[in-house]
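User: Fold both of these, please.

Assistant: Here is the first one.
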Amino acid sequence: MKRLSVLFAILLVPCFAFTQNENYDCYPTHWWTGMKWNRVQVMLHGKNVADNFPMIKMGPGGIKLATGVKLTKINRVENPNYIFIDLVIEATAKPGTIKFPFVRNMEFSYELKARRNGNGVSFAQGVTSKDFMYLIMPDRFSNGDESNDRVPGMRDQTLRRDTVFNRHGGDLKGIQNHLDYLQSLGVTALWLNPVLENDMDNRTEHGYAFTNHYKVDPRLGGDKAYHDLVEAAHKKGLKIIQDAVYNHVGIKHHTVLDPPMKEWLHQWPGFTQTSYKDQVLLIHMQVRQIKRSWQTVGS
């Protein structure tokens, strides 16, 4: 079976999936009604979770779970700790909780939320050449809430501003506190380094080593702080650009520690050096710079 693609978005509430002794991670944690793309693949991860899903014979239209919601396929992979569920959410679907009554030895339900109407505000306006973007690495900008500088249970507990190798304590509240200052510079759009959880042993300040695609890093303030920042920025007419390279994951992500299948990641049994040569790129850039210099001299 080839690699399955899971749809990603910023989501904030977990699905309801557990047994008496096991909790299961659910990707995406929920979905919405009224979406243009109405096919969603839900990934469940947990100890032998596949054993809780019996073989079910489905007709061409799948199985109806609720009004406008159909289960069209249950995908099994090499690792029994995963199951992938294909859903079709039609225009008639209503917000609420979808029950999966056929699973064994566990409780599993999935939430559909209503899309917000914007209340007269136009969201996702996009960025144009008229915008002045300001790039921020949240950990390096401003510490607005010292209570989240170190979060118990997370791997990286460093906090030293005199070195680039440790966390500095900046957070989303610190950015929110300085929106007026940023706006006074003429900024119209804030581009933040990824704010998703990076629960790695070290060098977690940059944000590009995701360990959870559906959770804002608690050292930046968590989900609520992100919501608060976005709402405050929008009230001032500022845009927020979400930086999230979804194929960037840290080695502590559960799909790395416990891959669904052997071909999930591009990897070898041992370290293998890539064929990438940055010298070629550097030489190309130098040649272009020399040509520009000649053109300037000639003019």
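And the second sequence with its predicted structure:
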Amino acid sequence: MTLVPHRAERDDHRPRLLPGEDLNRQVRAVLRHAVVAHQDGLKVYESLRNLNEVIGTEYGDRVLYELIQNAHDAHRAEDRGRIAVRLLIRSETDGTLYVANGGSGFRRKDVDAIKNLATTAKEIGEGIGNKGLGFRSVEALTDDVRIFSRRGRNASARFDGYCFRFAHVDEIECLLRADGIDAATARHVARTVPRYLVPVPVAEQPDAVVSYARRGYASVIVLPLCTEQAIDLAKVQVQALNDLDVPLLLFLDRIAEFRIDVETPNKVVRRRRLTRRQSRIGLVSRICG
């Protein structure tokens, strides 16, 4: 990675990059700008980081609902889509929450919507949400969220699209130092630039992740749960889905199948499958009073 601007980067006619290459290019641009901002005495990245932390705490009690809304909106209006939620608990402080959808894989503008606060890849009225803020709520459960996605709508044996996580402070500092930035600047920038602006490609795909690709899902959000508080919060929110007074699919008009699996140590796996079936009832005669 280099933070020196290149003419090729400004060429609007450059060839389409592979997802991993595109992520690296985005990171290079962000870090270059962050260094310049620091050198010029600007506080924009500090402000963004502080705002990010506030937003994350505001949505913490509805992490799962936010992810489900995003999964719904990944489908087209005419789709008979599907969403799968799996909570795997291995111990009191070790678990994983998976949220998968069968719509379209992540596009560049979807990555941008996650990276940047108060932006979205959706037009107003196109989906349930329209500001792209809710994804930050994952901070209530984990600081190591991972996203695996296929390209477009074509099924594949592995996720072959945008697959990434977000760099940690020490990783950002190492990137800057490796690029020749002095230690003091690298340390300051790494601690002020929001992590969500620094997506890191993920090459390894565990079997549990690959299984979603093989079943035709378009993307899966993976949230490692590493504290008792995170495990408890995930359990409460999954249970809330099961306890809704009205059918969940009533609010998800693009979804025909919704699966919820909960696996805990030494207990029977709890599975629930919700489906939607629509039938044409014919024309309703006009009634004149």
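Residues 60-167+196-274 form a domain with the Heat Shock Protein 90 fold (CATH 3.30.565.10).
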